[in-house]
Amino acid sequence: MPSRPQVVIRKLGITDHFRNLSVSGITLSRRVVGCDKEVAISVKISNTGNEAVTPGTVALKIEGAELSDNSLGQILPGASETAVFRHRFGSRGGHTLMAQVAVSDDLPGDNNRVLAVNVIDQLKVLVVDNGSAGRFMERSGSFPAMALAPVRGGVMKHGENYII
Questions:
Q1: Which of 66, 50, 71, 79 is nearest to 112 (CA)?
Q2: Which residues of 28-47 are buried (b: 16+ CB within 10 A; e: fewer)?
Q3: What gap in Å lies between CA 117 and CA 31, rounded to an integer?
Q4: Whole-angstrom distance, CA of residue 19 vs CA of residue 74
Q5: pLDDT tens digit string along 67-121?
Q6: Which of 101, 93, 94 is nearest to 26 (CA)?
Q7: Which residues partner with 23 through β-bridges?
Q8: What is the rounded distance in angstroms from the CA atom of residue 44 to the CA atom of residue 84?
Q9: What confidence tier does 27 reach under pLDDT thresholds 50, 70, 90?
């Protein structure tokens, strides 16, 4: 170019008093979530402002139900606290989790967060056994197969063998 472009830089300062809490994350205790047992759901609340803030209720909405936690105390600037909820999903498929912190701050747009979870009702597992031993209880794959097999009425049938 025959002439150099003009570059203008402006530094905009942040206000002296900025209060902000945000829902900065939702994590699950397991990567595979099923209908068979509870999962721990951690909701991380972060203070991204420059003033200490005490949150109100941290709420988690799942499947029409609302869980709440009032145990979080004052959060200092740059610090985070975590509220932990336990939930057992009633059905398989896609579910939406919405976490929200009740607080009056300068940036209300980050006071909630949504997470989609796929819940499964069964996990197919293949146990490979070399078959070198003849009897079922002497095979190397017997114990993992027994541990993963569904038990109905306290008795599992394998071939002609009943295992109690």
A1: 66
A2: eeeeebeeeeebebebbbbb
A3: 10
A4: 12
A5: 999 999 999 999 999 999 999 998 999 999 999 999 999 999 999 999 999 999 8
A6: 101
A7: 45
A8: 9
A9: very high
Distance from the first to the final alpha carbon of the chain: 85
Please give the single-letter amino acid code of residue 161.
N
Q: Measured between alpha carbons, how far is 51 from 113 in angstroms, rounded to an integer?
A: 22
Tokens of 85: 């909820």
- Amino acid letter for position 126: L
At 151, is the pLDDT very low, low, confident or very high (cuts 50, 70, 90)?
A: low
Place of tokens 């747009």: 109
Query: Contact 137/49 with Cβ under 8 angstroms?
Result: no
Amino acid identity at 74? Q
